[in-house]
Predict the structure of Acyl-coenzyme A thioesterase THEM4.
Amino acid sequence: MSQENKKIAIQETYGPRFQYCWGCGPKNEDGLHMKSYPSESGDECICTVRPDKMYTGGVPKNLFGGMIAMIFDCHGTASAAWFNHRNKNLELTEETVIGRYITARLEINFKKPVPMEEDITVIAKAEEIGERKIIVSMEMHAGGEIRAEAKMVAVGVKDNM
């Protein structure tokens, strides 16, 4: 596959120290390996996951709220890294080592139960891009409906964090 046709997940461009997150780290053997991708326009980031039945909440076939938060957390920080990268007019390539962001604040509005064992799509947009802080808004979709919304304050970190 040529360079221009290969989709690169944002998490694949994290520096070596930052690739071990349980939710999205490509080098965590026991992790979920979530992947976030910039949209064609670059204005949004998209992540699609299919939770396993082990992540059920109190009601069978509904996703556990902590997993919903984790999905927003991992996708939101990856999205913040992309929005910062794009704001500097940089491309995402296999050689990219993207600046890393962590969650400073995460607010979630749980609107409807999130179903298990089907695709869930999370779409992130940058509301505000500052020197070190990025505000990201996200929607979680499943079955053609918005199931949850989140707003994140993400902050850039140094590689020696």
Summary: The mean pLDDT is 91.
